Amino acid sequence: MTIIDIDQWRAAGEAFAEGSATFVAIWAERDGDEGFVHLAGRPSDMPQVEVFRLATRDLHFPSIGRVHAPAILMERAIQDLHGMIADGLPDLRPWLDHGYWLPTPATRPYAFKPVTGTGIHQIPVGPIHAGTIEPGHFRISVNGDTVVRLEARLGYAHKGTMALMRGVSLEHAARLAGRISGDSTVAYAFAFARAVEFALGIDIPPRAAVLRGVMAELERLANHFGDIGAICNDGGFPIMNAHCAVLRERILRLARICFGHRLMMDNIRPGGVAADLADGNADTITAELATLMARFEQLVELYDKTASMQDRAVSTGKLVPMVAQRLGCGGYVGRSSMQDFDARRDMAYPPYDTMTMTVPCRDAGDVDARIRIRIEEIRQSVAMIGHWLQNIPRGAVWTMPPDISKPRAASAVVEGFRGDIFAHVRVAGGRVEDVFLRDPSWFLWPALEAAIEGNIVADFPLCNKSFNCAYSGVDL
Question: Please, what are the domains in the chain?
Answer without folding.
Answer: 2-87 (3.30.460.80), 161-475 (1.10.645.10)
